[in-house]
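Lab notebook, bench 4. Continuing the backlog of folding jobs that were queued last week. Each job is logged with the same field layout so the records can be merged later without manual cleanup. Today's entry covers High affinity choline transporter 1, a 590-residue chain. Filled in by technician R.K.

JOB TYPE: sequence-to-structure
TARGET: High affinity choline transporter 1
LENGTH: 590
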Amino acid sequence: MTIHVEGLVAIVLFYVLILFVGIWAAWKNKNSGVGDGLDRSENIMVGGRDIGLFVGGFTMTATWVGGGYINGTAEYVYLPGFGLAWAQAPFGYALSLVLGGLFFAKPMRSRGYVTMLDPFQQLYGKRMGGLLFIPALMGEIFWSAAILSALGATLSVIVDININMSVVISALIAIFYTLVGGLYSVAYTDVVQLFCIFLGLWISVPFALSNPAVSDIGVTAKKTIYQSPWLGKIEPEDNWLWADNFFLLMLGGIPWQVYFQRVLSASSATYAQVLSFLAAFGCLVMAVPSVLIGAIGASTDWNQTTYGSLPPKDKDESDMILPIVLQHLCPPYISFFGLGAVSAAVMSSADSSILSASSMFARNIYQLAFRQSASDREIVWVMRLTIFVFGALATAMALLTGSVYGLWYLSSDLVYVIIFPQLLSVLFVKGTNTYGSVAGYIFGLLLRIGGGEPYLKLPPFIYYPGWVTQEKVHHLTGDVEHFVQQRFPFKSVSMAASFLANVFFSYLTKYLFESGMLSHKYDFLDAVVSKHSKEIMDKATLVSNHDNIILSEMAPVRQVLGASLAGTFTNTEVLSDDGASSPEAFHNED
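JOB STATUS: finished
OUTPUT FIELD FOLLOWS
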């Protein structure tokens, strides 16, 4: 296999730059936040809560603008039968950030949480927090694996280097600077990476457009030249399917730790909202070159290029249309610059997801569920260990699992149908409890899994109205694959059912126990009768004192632990933004 020296040099220089910025950020901010009452572990997780607008805007945008985002957008615009009409990610995720900023950023940031799972564990208990950790962890790990897999394929297209080696090196660099600097390194490298993505792709677009093999994309948008128009259209029978996928992106894009990590690191609740709105605009801007590259791919006579007579869609390589356009329609030095952009996109997502997963494990599982007396130093080492373990796991899946995209699709669906309704309940619905949370979890899980997952060849056991059998032809082998397509919006229905089950069973159990129809001894989750039992996170309960909501420790603990955990939920600097310090304030029945 030949190696393009120029491409390899470009990649090495780019990776060295990213590594340097990551280490510099860690050194620059090594003591930030510690003097303000934040422990070292919380400093790694939320960056001292002093991320400003400039860095915060970039790192919030990079939450979603990754390898999957730019490659996937280009792929859907290129694909015949789909086109721009089905490239939902830019608008879906932009609206997700707007809704997150309007409704979720302020209550989460003003209450001083450290991770997305904190309100769940505080209200529903540590065991329920552990259950909700499972889909959240799956989403982060499978997302990292999917984009690392995409990176390997991309690098192999342009540089002709071994896929496994490129994936491992990229993952090691991202893991290393995340280990060293935590959120600070992730945030500062995001600035460099986003700049490289924007510059790299925009430099490539004019060269690709001016290639003689490319027709006018304004013409191919509406007329069939080499394939169906790249604007695409939505058939009437697919309206509900389109809407279901759009709501999945718009609402399912909110309950992710990678998003809330940025929200919780903002210097105030208002800043957290502004960062969300800035990132929504950034997502739309960053999608433009990807849309153009997909349109260029659909407007190209590939017979005139070095790619060959068959177009990528006939070689089952539609998912790599972006690197293929860079490779075959741009001069070599431009394609290598664009390659740096793709690498940047992948690393900006992988490092965020790995840090998010390790933050939730170290805090919500290890510290709050198993080792409440753990020292700050111990938590830091658990974080470092899990950053390495989760990073290695994502890398192994990228290299060894052929269905990594299917796993990510399913896990992101579970985040939507399970975690989003739970987040709605814990923040905005008064009176939900652990019994309702468990019921909502089970309802959402069964209804979603019951619909099947074609990417994993998982057959449905619930056939929703309007289901059809479709066939997929593998062009290279000629194999025909049949699968069931659910045209009913079953993902959104599963989410709604999960939410309603949570509310219904919460009020039902509350009525049964408080009316005496069920004996108090059957309240085995301590969710109604003993609401403020030791199961509630950190043995903390909310009490009223001169109309101020504060935390009072119910059991004696070591002073350093009390300060650490109380500081988690009471942030005097920002409590005035919202007037409440935990979801209990909304659920407290006086």
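OBSERVATION: The first strand starts at residue 468 and ends at 473.
SIGNED: R.K.
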